[in-house]
Design a protein that fits this description.
By secondary structure, the chain is mainly alpha-helical. 48% of the residues lie in helices and 11% in strands. The longest helix has 21 residues.
Length: 109
């Protein structure tokens, strides 16, 4: 009772040449789609639903928000007023820390 198949089982009702031609066509279409693909420009793909504030700020953003120089920020880091968070080679600051400095500046005025 051995299985000795001499002809292949055909699950696709196409001739072999037609099958391979369609496969080549599909691959060409996919390559074309891939080559024409452009990432979205808006940056909306990075937004998190339900997030009402930006959790991390870059050095430049903190400088602009607080209207201070980079040197001042480094002094605040040195004295513990602002805590930096490094992600690879970049430095970020937490939203709550920036808000605390903004609130302390408002109360001093």
């Amino acid at each position: 009772m051995g299985n000795s198949w001499t002809t292949p089982i055909v699950l696709i009702p196409l001739a072999e040449e037609q099958f391979w031609e369609r496969m080549r066509l599909i691959v060409r279409e996919e390559i074309q789609l891939f080559q024409n693909w452009q990432p979205p420009v808006s940056g909306a793909e990075f937004q998190t639903p339900g997030l009402t504030y930006k959790p991390l700020y870059k050095m430049v953003e903190v400088q602009q928000l607080l209207q201070v120089s980079r040197t001042t920020i480094y002094e605040w880091i040195k004295h513990g007023k602002l805590k930096p968070y490094k992600v690879r080679s970049r430095v970020y600051f937490l939203w709550k820390d920036v808000q605390n400095i903004l609130n302390s500046n408002d109360s001093e005025k």
